Amino acid sequence: xENFRFDRTCSGNSTLDYMDNTPYQKLLTPVxxxxxxxxxxLVFVLMSILLVPFTFxxxxxxxQGQACLTATPITAVFWFAYNMFMVVLLDQKKQKK
Length: 97
Prior knowledge:
Blueprint: H1 30-50, H2 60-96
Helix pairs in contact: 1-2
């Protein structure tokens, strides 16, 4: 039984082109990072506002603080999802060229 590797198919005679195995590929430009940071900030603000009614406190300041703390992991997941989406999208566009 041959060792399984992700950079080839099991049969070994596929016509698909795989990504080059380079030590470092820079797909995202600084513009993509800036767009991601702006969108992530907007998601944080939106989630901080939307989550206030779901907090336990009747004090407005404490409720807003709880909403901000709850919005932090949601925003982190959005940031990771945005970056993964952009890397896959740009790689697919690069493969079509």
